[in-house]
Amino acid sequence: xxxxxxxxxxxxxxxxxxxxxxxxxxxxxxxxxxxxxxxxxxxxxxxxxxxxxxxxxxxxxxxxxxxxxxxxxxxxxxxxxxxxxxxxxxxxxxxxxxxxxxxxxxxxxxxxxxxxxxxxxxxxxxxxxxxxxxxxxxxxxxxxxxxxxxxxxxxxxxxxxxxxxxxxxxxxxxxxxxxxxxxxxxxxxxxxxxxxxxxxxxxxxxxxxxxxxxxxxxxxxxxxxxxxxxxxxxxxxxxxxxxxxxxxxxxxxxxxxxxxxxxxxxxxxxxxxxxxxxxxxxxxxxxxxxxxxxxxxxxxxxxxxxxxxxxxxxxxxxxxxxxxxxxxxxxxxxxxxxxxxxxxxxxxxxxxxxxxxxxxxxxxxxxxxxxxxxxxxxxxxxxxxxxxxxxxxxxxxxxxxxxxxxxxxxxxxxxxxxxxxxxxxxxxxxxxxxxxxxxxxxxxxx
Length: 446
Ligand code: FCB
Hints:
The chain is an alpha/beta fold.
């Protein structure tokens, strides 16, 4: 594949990978003892998913994982980020473990090992066991203790077979979309409650890290946060102040407790804390060393206080999700972290990718916009590395087209096209491009 773009050299130990999550690909929703999760309930509730679909079958990865791992291997990438479905290994989220569920992940890890692919495991990619939701879910402080038990059990069983374990994926989404505006499961719209949920998510992160440290496996322990710079539309004091507040309430809200041991005052000043309950020891639990930070990056936030608000120019276009393509925002946020936090662990870009309205024509998918998107974001990461940010890896979101939450199967993020009627997988042009890119990077370092 030709590309006029000059290719940057990444550090020799940089990890190249692809990412997925359990509910989005596994299917087998009621098989082998898996308990229901809040996403089963939510997706089966009429009106919640734009195409009326659910994850009952998804990519049928539960049955097709050997083929999918072969596909990962064929891409030449050496790392794979996936998540465990909590209710598959512990149907209620407390009490009995489900051996059949562990067997599935154990088989997956065997297959990855056979192909020399390094596994990176995420404990929670949004699929809370429904039985815990029935007791209040993330609003109930007890859920944090159940999460720590689950984390310890995973570390005991798999901690020496995976390179890393992330506690949460994008707690911002669970809090703000799950409880703030009801777009995601469990579908609650109450801003004040969403703040309490975010605190419990952070607390559960800290408790889980502590519990997993006691297990003392070889896995590196961390968390994955979705992040974006909030950029003011103009230099006006109002736009600038609004952008700073937005950054405080979304990015610093999670970063500061973990790395500084406190919530950002700028965010607290304007939040409805009427239902906020925290206990004396909580911040110490949340604020403890972690081994890595995962950053998921898709777009920036553009902040205008005008009415109607100014829109970004979107010089590089928008994705099929309607998200502005803005690679510089990734450099920006990485540099800002370097400046704001003195104790940053190594960073992995744990997600980055683009939805394209892909069409399968004569057996091929020519997704040039995705190639341009990935290339531009890799350049943005490289620029941050050059300026001293310790980025250790990149995982494209996603390996496969999959169940894109409330967008159902209508949005395609994969390097690999999935025909949902036949479950046939077809590598897109971007998959071939990524394979070439990674192979050239690896050759340089061998
Ligand atoms: C992220 C999620 C991931 C996927 C991408 C597009 O917010 O972590 O599951 O939905 O967005």
